Structures are given as structure tokens and as C-alpha cells.
């Protein structure tokens, strides 16, 4: 039996929050990484998303903070804005028992001004993407001399995305006596080289002896000639019960084609690819998390860092060239003890990409018993058609307008709103806008009610998004 969080020597305030979050015991990577990190050692951890790796570095990082000094003590570098937002969220959640904790999210694609201001006021923990952090260091907006711990999260992704030089520049400006933790799903030579350059006698930890995904993920392959791929996808989606699914493609063109074909058959689907601006990427992800779109069709670059609770199906419409990418893709389903299904469309038994994955994970991927599609694609799509359970509403006010989730619930329920609490789903309040999901058939009514009423005595605009 693994030790408890308490036995790992974490402070009571942190143990308590872990308990409240329903974390009964540390995961394997947590059991292995927390003790050396608490002891001040450098750690190189091989673990994938879903292993609990974020808490594995966030908990010891929080324990080491001196909250009385409002200065930068911990920095986490992430490959994408989405991941940075998630990690910062986890820092806030796990740190909610630590009075006065101040964190900042420092990512590109947003004006630097607010970020500079929050740094000037003082933060304990900063989470961000390498380019923006390099800029903030370069302009003197970020003072690195008080830094004690640096975390490189998903280091292999950062290299894949070309952040190597930025990371190097950031690390060069940090104090040499800092602690450095490096987490990566894979440990190719380039990562070992980074570890050598940035770490001192690191403790090596690994969640699995191999790269294998957790046993909770069922993996299958379905054979299809390339020109019948879409029909095979419809067959897979129709034949696999799921509440929400991600379909991964290698190319933006495939994403566009698949999304368009699903949508024109009235299937609830939307795209996530590099061609979308940040606002629309955030919006699609928010709708997906809220159940306002059932099927997300994504490329790897756009899909990085997606963390969706209850995702139960991942389809590889096109198998990736690198087996590590496959492991990363399917790691999105079957998180933290929930089970998931991953189905890959392969060209045929000789598909070398399947062999590559099998070699990496050390386990064969079986051919799915559902076999080849029997009926026409149109019939399969009809079985998938229909609205998603929820529909999202965009509200023109957020945190900076003093809007809180409770205010939105308040505006939608009671005499003014007329909805029941159970009609309202996920609420996401951002700086200047919010999303609320409500039962699909009540969405127009709910938007009308918000437009007619007030939140915190102010008027806001509500717009239906998606369909
Ligand atoms: P990560 O690998 O950091 O992306 O974490 C995957 C998911 O596991 C997150 O949603 C966490 O909230 C959850 N999680 C982290 N640690 C634990 C734990 N000890 N027990 C149960 N769930 C956990």
C-alpha cells in the first residue's frame, strides 16, 4: 500500500485540501517525486498527463514557499497557454489553505501589461510559457534573484514546439542555487541533455517502467483504406458509446474536412486547430468541457494541454508518425482511475505506425471486434445526429467586473431567471467574460433572461455560442 499524503511529510494545510479534493492516496509519481522534492533535490520525472504529475511538483513547491515574503519563489514553464492555465489552477486549488498565496499566469497572446503589473505587486508563484517569460525577464519586469524552484513541465513538448532556446535563455538568468524539477512524458537524448545542463545530481523517478499508458485505457485498431476513413470514423463513433470524444488528426485540412462533414450531418462537433485565434480556441474548449459540443476534432498542436474530465473516447483518425504522440493523445482519456477507450484507424495490418506504438508501449493493439462498417455512412451519421446535452452562453462580464459564478446562477434561477439549479451546468468566469452552460432547450430563454436582467446591478450581454 502506498503511503498517505500525511506520511509524505506534507503540511496539514496541504493534506487537508488533497482530502477535500477526494485524493485518497498519492499516485505513484507523487509517492516517488514528493519526498526528494521536499528534501530540496532536483528531480527528473518521467510521467504522462493523467498520472497526477502536476500535484507531484505543486505540493512540494507550495510547501517550500515563504508566504510572508511576497516575491517570486517558484516558476513553472509549460509548453502551452492551456497547460499553463491548468497548472496555475492546480496551484490555486491545492494552495487554497495557504493564506495570502499570490500566483500569476504569464502567457503570450495577451497584453503583457497586466502581467507586468501583477509582478510589480509581487507574486509567490508564476506559471507561464517560455517566450513570454523570457520577454518579462528581458525587460526587467520579472525579478529572478529570489527564485528557489524552477519546474519544466512537459519538457519534451516544449522542445517539440521549438521552445528550447527560450527555455535556455530563461534558465540562464535564474539563480544557480535554485532547485530544478523536470517532468516529461518521454526522455529522449535532448531531454537528458537539458537535465545535464540545468540540473544537479537529479533523482530519477518514473511512474511506469515503460512508456505504457495506464491499464484503464482500452486500445483498439480498426482497419480502413485511406479513402474510406470518414466512413470508418462514423462507424467507430456510432459503435462506441461515449458522452464526449476527441478525434485527433495529423493535418489541419483533415480537421476541417471531418468537422465539416460531421456538422453538415447535424452531429455535434467542432474543430480545434492552429487556425483558430486564442479566443475561439478557449471558447471551443470551454464548450467541450461543458458538454455543449460532443465531439472535438483536433490537431496535436492545438490539442496539447487539453484536460477534460470524463472524456471517454479518443479516436486517432490518422495515426501520428511518432509513437510518443500516440501515447500522449490517448493519455487524455481514462484519467485518474476512470476508464477510457482509444481507437485508431490504421491503413492495414502492415501499418508501420501501429508497430511503432506497440514497440514503444510493449503491448499489442488488438483489432476491434466491430470490424468494417456494414451500412452506408449516412445511416451511421443519422444515429449520431442531434443536439448536445448543453448549450453555452457567453456573458460580456467576468472577474474584473466582479461577476462570480454564484451571481450567474442567481440571475438564471429564482423569479427573474426561472431556471432550476439542475438546468445549469459548468460556469467558467474569466477576466472579462464568462461562459455558462445550460440545458440545450433552455438556452435561448436563459440568454434572454440575462439580457433582460442585471448581474450585480449591471447589464451584461448574453450571446448563444455554438449550436
Ligand atoms: P495530471 O497528471 O497532473 O494531469 O493529473 C491528472 C488528474 O488526476 C487531475 O485531474 C488531478 O486532479 C487528479 N489527481 C491528481 N492526484 C491525484 C490523487 N492522488 N488521487 C486522485 N486523483 C488525483
Brief rundown of the structure:
The chain has 467 residues and is of the alpha/beta class. The chain has three domains: 12-206, Rossmann fold (3-Layer(aba) Sandwich); 217-384, Rossmann fold; 390-465, 2-Layer Sandwich (Alpha-Beta Plaits), CATH 3.30.70.
Question: What are the main properties of this structure?
Answer:
467 residues; alpha/beta; Rossmann fold; Alpha-Beta Plaits; 3 domains; seven-stranded parallel sheet; 19 helices; binds adenosine monophosphate
Give the tally of structural domains.
Answer: 3
Across the major sheet, the strand order is 3-4-2-5-6-1-7
* Structural class designation: alpha/beta
In the CATH hierarchy, what is the architecture of the largest domain at level 2?
3-Layer(aba) Sandwich
Give the biggest beta sheet: 7 strands, parallel
The count of helical stretches stands at 19
Q: What is the CATH homologous superfamily assignment of the largest domain?
A: P-loop containing nucleotide triphosphate hydrolases
List unreliable stretches of 5+ residues: 209-215
- Which fold name corresponds to the CATH topology of the largest domain? Rossmann fold
Shape: globular
Using the CA coordinates, give the radius of gyration: 23 Å
Q: Would you tell me the overall average pLDDT? A: 90
Chemical compounds bound to the protein? adenosine monophosphate
**Level of helix content?**
25-40%
The level-1 CATH class of the largest domain: Alpha Beta
List how many beta strands DSSP finds.
Answer: 18
Q: Which band does the percent of strand residues land in?
A: 15-25%
Distance between the termini: 48 Å
Amino acid at each position: 500500500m502506498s503511503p498517505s499524503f500525511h506520511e509524505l511529510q506534507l503540511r496539514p494545510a496541504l493534506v487537508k485540501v488533497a482530502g477535500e479534493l477526494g485524493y485518497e492516496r498519492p499516485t505513484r509519481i507523487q509517492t516517488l517525486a514528493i519526498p526528494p522534492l521536499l528534501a530540496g533535490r532536483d528531480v527528473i520525472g518521467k510521467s504522462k498527463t493523467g498520472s497526477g504529475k502536476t500535484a507531484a511538483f505543486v505540493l512540494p513547491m507550495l510547501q517550500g514557499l515563504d508566504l510572508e515574503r511576497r516575491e517570486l519563489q517558484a516558476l513553472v514553464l509549460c509548453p502551452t497557454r492551456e497547460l499553463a492555465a491548468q497548472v496555475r489552477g492546480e496551484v490555486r486549488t491545492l494552495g487554497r489553505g495557504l493564506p495570502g498565496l499570490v500566483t500569476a499566469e504569464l502567457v503570450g497572446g495577451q497584453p503583457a501589461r497586466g502581467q507586468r503589473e501583477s509582478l510589480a505587486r509581487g507574486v509567490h508563484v508564476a506559471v507561464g510559457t517560455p517566450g513570454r517569460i523570457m520577454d518579462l525577464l528581458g525587460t526587467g519586469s520579472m525579478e529572478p534573484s529570489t527564485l528557489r524552484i524552477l519546474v519544466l513541465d512537459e519538457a519534451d513538448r516544449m522542445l517539440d514546439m521549438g521552445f528550447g532556446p527560450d527555455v535556455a535563455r530563461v534558465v540562464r538568468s535564474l539563480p544557480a542555487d535554485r532547485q530544478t524539477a523536470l517532468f516529461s512524458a518521454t526522455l529522449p537524448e535532448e531531454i537528458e541533455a537539458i537535465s545535464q545542463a540545468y540540473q544537479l545530481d537529479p533523482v530519477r523517478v518514473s511512474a511506469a517502467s515503460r512508456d505504457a499508458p495506464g491499464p484503464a485505457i482500452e486500445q483498439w485498431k480498426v482497419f480502413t483504406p485511406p479513402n474510406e476513413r470518414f466512413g470508418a470514423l462514423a462507424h467507430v463513433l456510432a459503435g462506441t458509446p461515449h458522452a464526449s470524444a476527441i478525434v485527433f488528426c495529423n493535418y489541419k485540412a483533415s480537421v476541417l474536412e471531418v468537422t465539416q462533414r460531421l456538422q453538415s450531418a447535424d452531429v455535434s462537433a467542432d474543430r480545434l486547430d492552429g487556425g483558430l485565434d486564442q479566443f475561439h480556441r478557449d471558447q471551443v474548449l470551454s464548450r467541450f468541457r461543458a458538454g455543449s459540443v460532443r465531439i472535438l476534432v483536433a490537431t496535436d498542436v492545438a490539442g496539447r494541454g487539453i484536460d477534460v474530465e470524463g472524456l471517454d473516447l479518443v479516436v486517432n483518425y490518422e495515426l501520428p508518425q511518432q509513437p510518443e504522440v500516440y501515447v500522449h493523445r490517448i493519455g487524455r482519456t481514462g484519467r485518474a482511475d476512470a476508464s477510457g477507450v482509444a481507437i485508431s484507424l490504421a491503413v492495414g495490418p502492415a501499418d508501420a505506425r501501429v508497430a511503432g506504438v506497440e514497440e514503444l508501449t510493449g503491448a499489442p493493439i488488438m483489432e476491434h471486434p466491430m470490424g468494417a462498417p456494414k451500412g452506408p455512412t449516412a445511416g451511421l451519421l443519422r444515429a449520431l445526429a442531434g443536439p448536445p446535452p448543453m448549450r453555452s452562453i457567453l456573458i460580456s462580464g467576468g472577474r474584473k467586473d466582479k461577476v462570480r459564478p454564484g451571481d450567474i446562477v442567481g440571475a438564471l434561477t429564482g423569479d427573474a431567471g426561472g431556471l432550476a439549479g439542475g438546468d445549469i451546468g459548468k460556469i467558467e468566469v474569466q477576466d472579462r467574460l464568462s461562459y455558462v452552460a445550460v440545458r440545450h432547450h433552455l438556452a435561448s430563454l436563459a440568454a434572454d433572461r440575462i439580457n433582460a436582467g442585471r448581474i450585480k446591478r449591471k447589464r451584461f450581454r448574453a450571446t448563444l455560442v455554438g449550436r
